[in-house]
Amino acid sequence: MKILIFDILLTGHHSEYISHFAEFLQTCDDQNEYIFVVNHQFSNRFPLISQKIMKRVNLKLIEIEKEEFMISQKGGLLKMSFSWYKLMNQYAIQFEVDHVILLYLNTFQLALCFFRPSYTISGILFQQFKRMQVKNWKDKVKYARKYLFTQGIVRNNSIKKIHVLNDQNSVDYFNSEFDTSIFEMLPDPVPEIFPLPKFDIFSHYQINRNKIIILHIGSLEDRKGTFDVANSISLIEERNRKKLAILIVGETKDDKLKILLKNQAAKYPEVLIWDNQFVSNEMMKSLFEQCDIVLMPYKNSEGSSGILGHALASGKAVITTGQGLLKEIVLDTKCGFLIDIVNPVNISIVISNLINADKLNFNGGTYLESHSPYIFVNKIINFKFNNK
Fold first, then answer.
1. What is the pLDDT of residue 62?
2. pTM for the full predicted model
């Protein structure tokens, strides 16, 4: 059986998920052929993952052309859906695959309302509509669009399984609402990563060792609350600011956000540090291990977050949104502090309240046990074995 695993993005969980598959397939006796179709920069960014894939005869790593990737990024959501499908389908036909695993199903949804390929498909659906906050007409339009797209792909007989991260409640709703059984809860995996040897966060970023380090890491954008984090600094009393170092690590495509971060870092050089780069997994692990608390004030309440898992794996509490799935996970694991409404004022208040807190560390416990990369991949792969 030939299986194509498709994900052409690089940041955050995208490379991690491919790494989990590569690691899993090194250790199991799986005679199926797997073709990984990835970004044109994948091997340069992740040489160790690429080496693992190329070790096995039944695994292939295919990097799309740079021009193909650039074309896939043009236009709005509707245009991108068809260009992504066309690209994926091109490789599926080329390698005559039996099944395609879409590690990011969202962009394909519109196209899959129309196209029904001969091969079967499964995928991971992020930020589904069930937990959306509908406050205005734009939210209503977005909700309706997501509902119709979901309804459309459920009717596509080529799609055999849709995985929803960490959210059994939404899975039950979807299966009932659309009279199906194709939705399945998938534990968002927390990988075991080892930190850089001899790395010291204080000397690396020239931070005073008496300061509390608050880490905001990942792809920086408005929906991640990055604007609000940057704007919260001026609202923190000076006596409290002196005790803080807010470390923002990651890249952004938003020019306005770039300007804001640069200006705030210049205005509050002892407080705000922006490391404008994509860091390695080992570097990321070092930052989680050595910071005091992780700041993830995401505005979308419908999704989970891999950052939460990394924080738990390093025994660090989080500050996050007080709504949706993230709220439920935090309350269930008792691993953090919630912001009812994400804005600069509320972020500054929570940070100020935590400066003199006695305990900021938490034990991930059973959450980590049930969210291992092995369970994650095994659940996806076992579906394939059960449906050949």
1. 97
2. 0.79
